[in-house]
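re: ur question from earlier - yeah i can do the single chain one, its not a big deal. heres the input i used so u can compare w yours
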Amino acid sequence: MNYRINALLTLTAALSIAYECQAANEIALKGRYEFRTDTQSQDMLGGLVCFYPGPDSAKILPRSPADKRLAWFCFKNKDESKKLLNIPEQFKGKNCGISGQAALKVVNYVSYNGEGDGVDTAVLVAVTEKSALRKLACKE
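and the output i got, formated as tokens:
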């Protein structure tokens, strides 16, 4: 009996770790994007632009119902996403990045459910609306 319980717990744990949500279809979202230039963010995210969908958009992301993490992801197509969002190569003044609001379309959304520093990712294919860029203050 004890063997069955251990086997079931092991199988359940393996399935929850291996569960990966993906969506190849196009998804239209609204929310906030950020490109951070501080050393810690660059080390963690490798210079990727990230997106924080608004509450309504977060509900349509293909994520496991058991996933209670904050809904956010980074764009895998680093150079193209910067171009589509008009993020300049260099910023003037003292700041640690750029942020703005946008309505956009992504494909190939992949939810990261492993352990460690991985993040959900998607490919940005179009920006239908965007606000003016806002500089992000540095965290001291």
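Helices lie at 2-18, 39-45, 55-58, 78-84. not sure if urs matches, ping me
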